[in-house]
Design brief:
This protein is of the alpha/beta class and about 375 residues long. The protein has 2 domains: about 1-180 and about 355-370, Rossmann fold; about 185-355, Glycogen Phosphorylase B (Rossmann fold, 3-Layer(aba) Sandwich). It has 16 helices and 12 strands. A 6-stranded parallel beta sheet has the order 2-1-3-4-5-6, with helices on both faces. A 6-stranded parallel beta sheet has the order 9-8-7-10-11-12, sandwiched between helices. α8 packs across α11 (about 270-275) and α9 (about 215-230) crosses α14.
C-alpha cells in the first residue's frame, strides 16, 4: 500500500505518533511518505508555525491556556473557526501533491492538515481514506472540523465526549495513541541500566519536560536534592529536550553532581523509561501513553493549561499516575508512594488496563484491511 502520514511540529508528540505509524507500516513492507504538511508550502512557514507554538508553550503557558480557552469557547459558535480557514489556504498545495502521488490512505496526527483535507472534501476533490489521530485524552478545540473518514481516539471512554462535538460514533476507532515498538518491547531493568551506563542498584528517577523541555524542571530538580542525599546510590536523569537554555542552567548548577545525569534530546527515551523506577513529567499525551505502554510508575507535574490539564485529570482519575500540583509539598511524598512495590504494581495494572499498548499495530491492521 501507499500511505501518506502528515504531522505538524507543534510539540514532539504529533511527530512521535506519526513516526510510530510510519515505522510499523514500513516494517510490514508498505511504502510510506511522512512529512510536515506545511513543507508543501515551502520551507519558511513550517519553522514559523512550530517555533511560535513552542515559545508560547515554554515561556508563557498561561497564554497558551488562555488561547485554548478561547478556542473552546469559539467552537460553540455555528461558524467555522479562523484556524479552519487558515489551514484551508493549504488546500491547493495538498491537492497538487496528491495529483503527483498516489496514496491509498492518509494518516494525520494533527488537526491542521486534517482541516486542510476537510476543505478539499468540501470542494469535492477525490481523496484517499483519511484518518485523524487524537494525541491527547480529550477532543481538543476544532478537531470536529476535520471531517475525516475515521478518527482514532485514545480510549473508548472518550467516545461520548467526541460524539458530543458531532463525531459519528461509527467513525471512531478507540485504538489508542500510537507509540513506537520499542516502548512495547519488554527488557530487564538491569540490562537496560548496564547498557545506558547507569548504576545497577539504587532508586532511579527520570525527569522530563517533553521535547520542548517545558514545565517546572529546574524547581523539581531542586526539590529532589534532599532525596538524592539520602542514598548515594539514588540517581536522577533529567531530559531537557530541545530546551538548550534549560540544559545550560542545570549544567551550571548540577553538572558536578555525580548523582545527576543531564541529557539534551535523546532517541533512547524508551530505554530510559525502562531503566528508571519512576518518571516525572508534564502530562503530554504522547509521553504519558509511552510511559503507560512501558509500565513505569508515573508522576505528573506542571501541565500546560488546556489539553494537558485534561490528560492530567484523565490519568489521575484512573490511578495511572500521581498528579502533583505543588512541587514543594507534594513531590517527595509522591516519590515515597511509588517506592511501595504494591502501589507501583497497582499503577502498572491500571495503565495496562486503560491504555492499549498495541495501538499502533491495531491501527495498521485496520489500514491494511481497507479496500484498494
Amino acid at each position: 500500500m501507499e500511505i501518506l502520514v502528515l504531522s505538524c511540529g507543534m510539540g514532539g508528540g504529533h511527530n512521535a505518533a506519526g513516526q510510530a505509524v510510519t515505522d510499523e507500516l514500513q516494517r510490514r513492507g508498505h511504502s510510506v511518505v511522512f512529512m510536515n504538511a506545511y513543507h508543501l508550502n515551502g520551507k519558511k512557514i513550517a519553522p514559523i508555525v512550530n517555533g511560535t507554538y513552542i515559545k508560547i508553550a515554554q515561556k508563557t503557558p498561561r497564554l497558551f491556556g488562555f488561547i485554548y480557552f478561547l478556542g473552546d469557547s469559539y467552537r460553540k459558535l455555528p461558524i467555522k473557526s479562523p484556524v479552519y480557514w487558515a489551514n484551508g489556504k493549504m488546500a491547493g498545495y495538498v491537492e497538487d501533491f496528491l495529483k503527483e502521488h498516489h496514496f491509498d490512505a492518509v494518516v494525520m496526527t494533527h488537526i491542521f492538515p486534517a482541516q486542510t483535507f476537510a476543505k478539499l472534501k468540501k470542494e469535492h476533490v477525490k481523496l484517499p481514506e483519511t484518518f485523524l489521530v487524537a494525541t491527547d485524552y480529550t477532543c481538543i478545540p476544532f478537531m470536529e472540523e476535520a471531517d475525516c473518514d475515521y478518527c482514532v481516539i485514545p480510549s473508548a471512554e472518550l467516545a461520548k465526549e467526541f460524539c458530543s462535538y458531532g463525531f459519528d460514533k461509527e467513525k471512531l476507532l478507540p485504538f489508542g495513541i500510537p507509540v513506537r515498538r520499542e516502548f512495547v518491547e519488554e527488557r530487564a531493568q538491569a540490562d537496560v541500566r548496564r547498557q545506558l551506563g547507569l548504576k545497577k542498584d539504587g532508586f532511579c528517577i527520570l525527569l522530563s519536560g517533553g521535547s520542548m523541555g517545558a514545565g517546572k524542571i529546574t524547581e523539581a530538580v531542586g526539590v529532589l536534592q534532599s532525596f538524592l542525599t539520602e542514598n548515594k546510590r539514588n540517581q536522577l536523569i533529567v531530559v531537557c529536550g530541545n530546551n538548550h537554555k534549560l540544559y545550560e542552567t542545570l549544567e551550571r548548577k548540577y553538572g558536578a553532581n555525580a548523582q545527576i545525569c543531564l541529557l539534551k534530546k535523546t532517541s533512547q527515551m524508551a530505554d530510559y523509561m525502562k531503566a528508571c523506577d519512576v518518571l516525572i513529567t508534564k502530562p503530554g499525551g504522547l509521553t504519558s501513553t509511552e510511559a503507560a505502554a512501558v509500565g513505569v510508575p508515573l508522576i505528573h507535574i506542571s501541565p500546560i493549561p488546556g489539553c494537558e490539564s485534561r490528560n492530567f485529570s484523565f490519568f489521575e482519575e484512573r490511578k495511572m499516575s500521581i498528579a502533583v500540583r505543588d512541587l514543594k509539598t507534594e513531590l517527595l511524598p509522591a516519590i515515597r508512594r511509588t517506592q511501595d512495590p504494591v502501589f507501583a504494581d497497582k499503577m502498572r495494572q491500571a495503565q495496562h488496563t486503560t491504555v492499549n499498548r498495541f495501538s499502533t499495530m491495531k491501527l495498521c491492521d485496520f489500514i491494511e484491511r481497507l479496500p484498494r
